[in-house]
Amino acid sequence: MNVTYPTIEMIKEVHAKTVDLSGGGMISILDSGRLESVLQHIQNDDNYPTFEEKLAHLFYCVCKFYCFSDGNKRLAITASALMLLHNGYLYCSVSFIREMENVSYHVAAGNISKELLLEIITAHLAQTSDDEELKLKILHAIAPLG
Fold first, then answer.
1. pTM above the 0.85 mark?
2. Overall number of domains in the chain
3. For 56-110, what is each residue's pLDDT tens digit?
4. In a domain, 3, yes or no
5. CA-to-CA distance for 123 and 129, rounded, in angstroms?
6. 84 contacts 55 by C-beta, under 8 angstroms
């Protein structure tokens, strides 16, 4: 598998543009080492053998690790979309940005697990995100108990 990976410089640039264009916030980075580690780990084909697994790990970690003072959920979406674009997934990158907004919130809140996120991303890339079983899994993950 020949995958093009985002660099730390690309992520920082995307973060600055994302924050600027989406309503503002602080652009300062809190933990570049952690972010660099994520970018390195997704290149390990033993741990992340598929493109979907690499993308899910990137999205999940950027969303959960709070490497920047603001815009982490937004960055999870745009950094993942960048990776999609650089790897020929133009057909689904716009819908990915639109559909992952609610997902990013629930990942950050701890409602959507990394495993469910992988299922969501895999379905999105395969254009089968209207699968009723997956919709029910998402509903059960985000619905309040009671």
1. yes
2. 1
3. 999 999 898 876 766 678 889 999 999 999 999 999 989 999 999 999 999 999 9
4. no
5. 5
6. yes
